[in-house]
Amino acid sequence: MADASPRADHWAIVPAAGIGARMGTDCPKQYLPLAGTPVLTHTLERLAAHLRIAGIVLALREADPYWRALAFHCPKPLHVVTGGASRAASVLAALDWLAGREQPEMPILVHDAVRPLLHADDIERLCAEPLDEHGCLLATALTDTVKRTDAAGRVRETVPRDGLWTVQTPQRFRLHVLRAALAGALAAGSEPTDEAQAVERAGFHPRLLAGRRDNIKITVPPDLPLAECLLAAQTRSDHPTETTQT
């Protein structure tokens, strides 16, 4: 019988060169403890554990003093590159490294270092989606009412939420498409806030896939205790018999 198990056919890129100024801590947010383990460790462990991931490229700021102390052991190939002054520059540095080693069509997942609650089901659904030049990414449809304000903070209008989504990661593209899109954006002086924006600028239209709502990004201080609650809920859901034993 043929082996039906999924192949390790994707590389993951994790941009982690930021300092996380909005968190208001001396330590970058990717190194803050989440249930006793650094956020970045959670993120890397979840990516490395998935069968579709062949390896990880981690973009760190130059002379990062925290990474070595992490002593992270990765069961998959993990390569560290020096990131840039922006997210786009960091991802491009990782893509440049991969371009010398992999085929241009290689599927790439780019995932936020501070989304430590990524579930294996979301990785699997994203990797199983047919991949064309446009790419695809996880997102959640807006359910709250959306207001646009004026400079004084007063409501100017209520924005129809039909067709509006909040974007998550991973975002999945072919290596050569994303590399060209990011290089083009940076050369033009544009700073895309995510990979999809760069690809959109290049004329493509990525597909959105509904992701789990617990795949949150840790950005401001209240996000950390929320992430701890969600992590505990995931653990109970994934291992119900273990959590009910006395």
Architecture overview:
Helix 2 (67-70) links the parallel strand 4 (53-60) and strand 5. The protein has helices spanning 39-48, 67-70, 87-99, 120-128, 175-187, 195-201, 223-238, 240-244; strands spanning 10-16, 33-34, 37-38, 53-60, 78-82, 107-110, 136-141, 146-149, 155-159, 165-174, 207-210. It has 8 helices and 11 strands. Helix 3 (87-99) packs across helix 5 (175-187) and helix 5 packs across helix 6 (195-201). The protein has one domain (10-239): Spore Coat Polysaccharide Biosynthesis Protein SpsA, Chain A. It has 246 residues and is α/β, with parallel strands linked by helices.
Which descriptors apply to this entry?
two-stranded antiparallel sheet, 246 residues, globular, alpha/beta, Spore Coat Polysaccharide Biosynthesis Protein SpsA, Chain A
The ordered string of helix (H) and strand (E) elements is EEEHEHEHEHEEEEHHEHH
- Number of helical elements: 8
Strand residue content: 15-25%
Provide the gyration radius in Å.
19 Å
Main sheet overview: 7 strands, mixed
Q: What's the arrangement of strands in the largest beta sheet?
A: 5-4-1-6-10-7-11
User: What best-fitting shape do the alpha-carbon axes yield?
Assistant: globular
Fourth-level CATH superfamily: Spore Coat Polysaccharide Biosynthesis Protein SpsA, Chain A
* DSSP strand tally: 11
CATH architecture: Alpha-Beta Complex
Overall pLDDT score: 93
For the record, what CATH class applies? Alpha Beta
Distance between the termini: 43 Å
Helix % is 25-40%
- Residue stretches low in confidence (pLDDT < 50, at least 5 long) are none
Number of individual domains: 1
Which structural class do the helices and strands define?
alpha/beta
Which fold name fills CATH's third level, the topology?
Answer: Spore Coat Polysaccharide Biosynthesis Protein SpsA, Chain A
